[in-house]
Amino acid sequence: MDVVDRRSADRTGGRAVDRTTLHRVWRSILALAGLAVAAACFVAPILLAVIAAAFTLLLFARRIYRGRDRYIPNLYSRDIGVYDDGYQEFIRRSLAELRRCKISDHTLLWEASRLAPPSRENSDEVLLDLGVWIGWSTRLTAEASGRKVYGFDTFEGLVEDWAIDDQVVIERGTFSLSEPLAKRFIRDTGLTLEDGIPPALGRDVEFIKGMTYETLAPFLASRPAAPISLFHMDLDTYESCLHALETCKDRFVEGSVLVFDEYLVTNGELRAFYEFQQKYGLQWQYRAWGLEVWEMNVEMVTSWWKRLSYYLILIAGYWTLGDGRYAWTFFGKRFWRFWLGAPWGDIAFMLGAAGQRKSVSLEITGLGTLARTRDAG
Ligand SMILES: C[S@@+](CC[C@H](N)C(=O)[O-])C[C@H]1O[C@@H](n2cnc3c(N)ncnc32)[C@H](O)[C@@H]1O
């Protein structure tokens, strides 16, 4: 594995796709809180001494802490010591590489806006969005890339239970469009389902309904030899991810960009990609580590006051009930892993966002044994 220089990755300069208002709102709240603390220190200088003492203690504790490099973000959830040596090494190297590719944007849209135009011999190349929910990831990818995007989903939710590391299990059927949350977002982002499928809303997209286990192979068979230029994985589970990689393997080419929305879940997409690239001896390089695309649904809420209330609810939810709470609930292990074990850069990266930063992109640079199979074919 390798890491790409992001400046040279900006092949097309990128279209304007900055949709990070939620995070700007959060950073404004942080700045206001900082000002309030500074004002309090001015009024009661003893506070400054307390803060300085706490910081000195933290610096000292970080020097003697031995857990560095053993935990994986987001907010230092899992001890990777539970895995075999090969996978542990892959995770360590991945994090070292990824730390050099941090971006403040949403990885999928960042990549879509930078896709090189198709070459003449690859004019039939396709862009896939696997796991679309109410369709915004697909529509916005089409907008950002200026190209047609194919979106795949059951629209009836996950097809397997999804265990997120050692934290929670999200049950099969979750993310069905009949759930109250989906119905609310469908209404608030101005959609009307057509035969249970989200509308294109004027974007160049096509939605394909069904399990990818049944839809992906026939879709590719109907476009013989069409290479995949963008592969966006948001099916969440290890099984669906590995199946999609295997089904698409003969359509990956040098330059194919793969975006994984939940890459830093060690028993999910990360594990699936690890096994896949190892099996075929693929060459590839990391390109970006940024924000997940789900929250784009909030950005697309049509009324500004509803959007603002969604921002505030999401921010409050993330820091009180979501992973953000591990940054301040000192009675849990993850609090200590985060403050003592995380590199300063990770701490700033995590605190600067009010949402998950698990999305990673990479580019295939060599096809390994897949090339041999193709030559033989
Ligand atoms: C997290 S949601 C996708 C969110 C979407 N990309 C967004 O940003 O709004 C995951 C989606 O994957 C779908 N899904 C999971 N496994 C699937 C499979 N094997 N085949 C088809 N759809 C699947 C679920 O129905 C769900 O809508």
SSE order, as H and E?
A: EHHHEEHEHEHEEEHEHEHEHEHHHHEH
Cofactors and ligands: S-adenosylmethionine
Which class best fits the helix and strand makeup? alpha/beta
Percent range of helical residues:
40-55%
| Secondary structure tally, helices | 15
Radius of gyration, taken over Cα atoms and rounded to an integer in Å: 21 Å
Distance between the termini: 27 Å
Question: Beta-strand level of the residues, as a percent range?
Answer: 15-25%
Tell me the number of structural domains: 1
Low-confidence parts, pLDDT < 50 over ≥5 residues? 3-12
> How many DSSP E strands?
13
Largest sheet: 9 strands, mixed
User: How does the overall form come out from the CA principal axes?
Assistant: globular
Mean of the pLDDT scores? Answer: 91
If you had to describe this structure to a student in words, what would you say it looks like?
With 377 residues, this protein is an alpha/beta fold. The protein has one domain (2-117, 124-376). It has 15 helices and 13 strands. The strands form three sheets. Strands 1, 4, 5, 6, 9, 10, 11, 12 and 13 form a nine-stranded mixed beta sheet that branches. A two-stranded antiparallel sheet has the order 2-3. Strands 7-8 form a two-stranded antiparallel sheet. Mean pLDDT is 91; it is low at 3-12. Bound molecules: S-adenosylmethionine. Residues 131-133, 136-137, 152-154, 157-159, 175, 211-213, 234-236, 240, 293-294, 297 line the site of S-adenosylmethionine.
